[in-house]
Amino acid sequence: MSNRIVFVLLVVVGCSSVVAPEDQQxxxxxxxxxxxxxxxxxxxxxxxxxxxxxxxxxxxxxxTARVTATRYGSQCQYAVTGRADVSATAIxxxxxxxxxxxxxxxxxxKLTYVAEISGLARHSYDLTVIHEENNQKDTLLTQRxxxx
Length: 148
Fold this sequence. Notes:
Layout: H1 2-15, H2 21-25, E1 28-35, E2 38-46, E3 57-61, E4 64-72, E5 78-86, E6 90-99, E7 109-118, E8 123-133, E9 136-147
Parallel strand pairs: 6-8
Antiparallel strand pairs: 1-2, 2-7, 3-4, 4-7, 5-6, 8-9
């Protein structure tokens, strides 16, 4: 009988530190900056390792183009800034990741931004999304978008 009690106690104590995936999803921080027609929302949250994040995606609604992208990282690790330039036929979104000189928790996190460029006229635009990091620029998305 005492062996069963010890076994049950070991199981209960051993499982008490397990964190459910739902709890990890609630560990989110968010920062919002507005610069002219650009509203940049940056958030990070816990993430399982081994997830392959795709290139940015763009959606368009009346007067607004919205670009979303996710990668590994955290707001502790990176300062994320953005700039949008709009001309009669083109939208250029530049997002810069600058490493912070700080000590962060050694945990896998995903870093997501949502860039909303508003005040767009009804027109077709060539949308270009450029990411900058470590003095390197990469064009991650080039897409023709029609603003209704």
